[in-house]
Amino acid sequence: MNRGNVAAVACHAFDELVWITDLNAVWLLFTLLGGVVFGLAPAAVAASTLVRKRFSGEKVRLLAEFCTVYRREFGVYRARDAMRTAVNLRKDWLDKLGLEIPKTTDDLYEVAKAFTELDPDGNGVDDT
């Protein structure tokens, strides 16, 4: 092995060592923040998920992806605004096109299709 290869291997090994050290620091932080007993399992799952991704060759953004997996595993309930689960329709467009408020998903499909293909805003431009 020549000097260039040795340097490349050493650089790669150092990079992996730094990444593992950073991962351990983030794991410890999240384990402590989660209350040791309750934070241990989600932090371990997040760490193992990131290690698997890293060793499969994927680029891993350590803190952002750790937080995402940790939150999913920890199962912290977050209330959702009712408007995030609703469908909002413009009543004036329904009236202009002579359509009823949809009651089924098939009706909703037909309304969406009419909104797209017809000109509910009346500007003569295909922009809806």
Topology, element by element:
Layout: H1 3-33, H2 37-55, H3 62-74, H4 91-97, H5 105-117
Helix pairs in contact: 1-2, 1-3, 2-3
Tell me about this structure.
The chain is 65% helix and 0% strand. The protein is an all-alpha fold and 128 residues long. The protein starts with a helix and ends in an 11-residue tail after the last helix.
Total beta strand runs? 0
Distance between the termini: 64 Å
Arithmetic mean of pLDDT = 82
Helix content: 55-70%
Multimerization state: single chain
* Low-pLDDT runs: none
The DSSP helix count reads 5
Note the overall shape.
elongated
> Compute the gyration radius: what is it?
26 Å
Q: Which structural class best describes the helix and strand composition?
A: mainly alpha
| Sheet with most strands | none
Order of helices and strands: HHHHH
Work out the strand percent: under 5%
Question: What are the defining features of this structure?
Answer:
single chain; 128 residues; 5 helices; 0% strand
Short summary:
This protein has helices spanning 3-33, 37-55, 62-74, 91-97, 105-117. The protein is mostly helical.
